[in-house]
Design brief:
The protein is mostly helical. It has two domains: 63 residues, no CATH class; 105 residues, no CATH class. The longest helix has 20 residues. The radius of gyration is 18 Å and the shape is elongated. 22% of the residues are buried.
Length: 170
Amino acid sequence: MIIHIDLDKSHPVAAVKAIVYWIERYKIQELNVAGPRASRDPRIHDEVKNLVLSVLHLCADALALPESAVNKPIIPATVGEAVEDLISVLPLHDKSILAQIDRIDLEVFRPFLGKFIRNRYGLWKGNKMLLASCRAVSGKEDIHPDDASILIMDELWKRLREIHVLKVIK
């Protein structure tokens, strides 16, 4: 499987998102990166290095949840309970990263964190109470499990911005 990313035409967040999605979709085990030589494009080395490091960081973080968190299904009844559980299992480093990113950049975490949320909270298995809470929070009559996991991620992001944002004190 091949993916082509043109760094002149892609926003860095969009490029990372595309690569992470591609890795998950095709279950990529090895990554071969090719492109122009630095002698022809002096900035290429640093741009590709940053891109690959971002991808590796996201993939590693997605898999770095404690084993007990991955294998221990929890059945929260409300969005708030799901958010509090996520805060309790996410490593401090990941919480800090999520709190610092812009809302639009949260999209990059959706393939891994969204899947974790759907599996951990039984959204695919019909956790009716949590889905009802998601409907109430979203104001929608019906909500798909994928949309419910996105809503929970959004609420997690909002909560982390309240409690994990680094502040400069003069």
